[in-house]
Amino acid sequence: MTEIGTTRIKRGLAEMFKGGVIMDVTTVDQAKIAEEAGAVSVMALERIPADIRKEGGVARAADPGLVEQIMDAVSIPVMAKVRIGHIAEARILEYMGVDFIDESEVLTPADVKYHIDKWQFKIPFVCGARNLGEALRRIGEGAAMIRTKGEPGTGDVSEAVTHMRAVMNEVRKVQSMLEDELVVEAKDLGVNVELLREVRVLGRLPVVNFAAGGIATPADAALMMTLGADGVFVGSGIFKSSDPLPRAKAIVAATTYWEDPKVLFEVSRGLKEGMPGIDARTLVELDKMQVRDS
Amino acid sequence: MVIGVLALQGDFREHADMMRSLGAEVRLVRLPEEVDSVDGLIVPGGESTTMGKLMVKYGVDRAIVDRFNAGRLAIYGTCAGMIVLARDIEGCEVQPHLGLLDVTVQRNAFGRQKESSEEDLEVEGLDTPLHALFIRAPVIVRTGPSVEVLARVAQGPVYVQQGRLLASSFHPELGSDTRVHEHFLRLAEQNSNQEV
Fold first, then answer.
1. Alpha-carbon distance A17 to A231, whole Å?
2. Residue B171, min C-alpha distance to chain A (Å)
3. ipTM score here?
């Protein structure tokens, strides 16, 4: 019997992304540049986070027509974002056959209380998380992949670092917990105790965990890999820089050769100017995308 | 006997873990010189375009082809790895690949992710079916005369062997059934013994 949309198939696609770079694109041309640079997937959206941040207003899922054009233009998997809790935006993308859905805090949340019940979908979801509790709550809702939230559109990697370190640190704590401590920890985090047991056995999340939110240079990507990321998302960092293709290629190489300073030196040298950045510490709470859900 | 796993991108950790569980000595391969110390090489699942580009950029492709042609390497490719091994990729003349396995593959032959599936597969030489995961998987649309088909689905062959080359559209490394990896280990062992 042939089964589709199983948990293993959904999580399995995320496994195939590991060691790779997923790039935000807003046009067919950008999608082709991303594929040419060696991206493992592209995230199709209407505005990249830096512009959403600048222009303000309500950010919604992209025009399905744009997503469709990008799906037709590249052979690699295509992802697209939906607003948190927006079941209908997700159903449209599932119908179209998008390969992965990002239920994303980068867009304006549609539901301030509930996330999408992702078990109901045949295609996989990725969600953002700042710590182990958020990650396991999203996995409990059916997410097949996790990424750090970081602070999107800033070009400041510090928040992604904080989030990746938090997850890794909490995983290490869980590994040393006794069963009675684990039960209370599950209650405190608001997560399923079975999921927490799985983390204790594996010594990592039960799904692939990428870094996202503020990655702008090859060295940023290598840093996130060093901290234990399975791969990286680059949002504004590529197409807000002055020369996207060489930078995109360099970030792809840095994500593979993150342990090799010689390669990192070679690919980092001579890249033109990076995206203009915002120090994440200067953002007021209201401007932070990472606090839009928990 | 050392098994290398090409670790440019993809699910190389799962292949390495499965090989270690079978008692093999495993090394991750990212640079050309690292190819020279392995007797068997696994090209994992992942994105074939990404792997192909990195392989060419850092010269890993030449190192693999040279060692294979010198008779010192057995290779197993899964999914993207099958595409990387193939002689021809349908509709993609420019995509970098090794071209060792005399087949033509069609990428994403089942369709997009929502058509990805799992099923029990009858495999030549195995007593019981193998549970196979197909994830945006390729299918073989042409096989050369020296290629033996070990399993097929309605769309075409999905598991083939050509001497020291083995390739599957599906991902045994994501499950717990180690029979495909055991088969590859035997291939690599035979090849490494013949050299002596």
1. 7
2. 9
3. 0.97
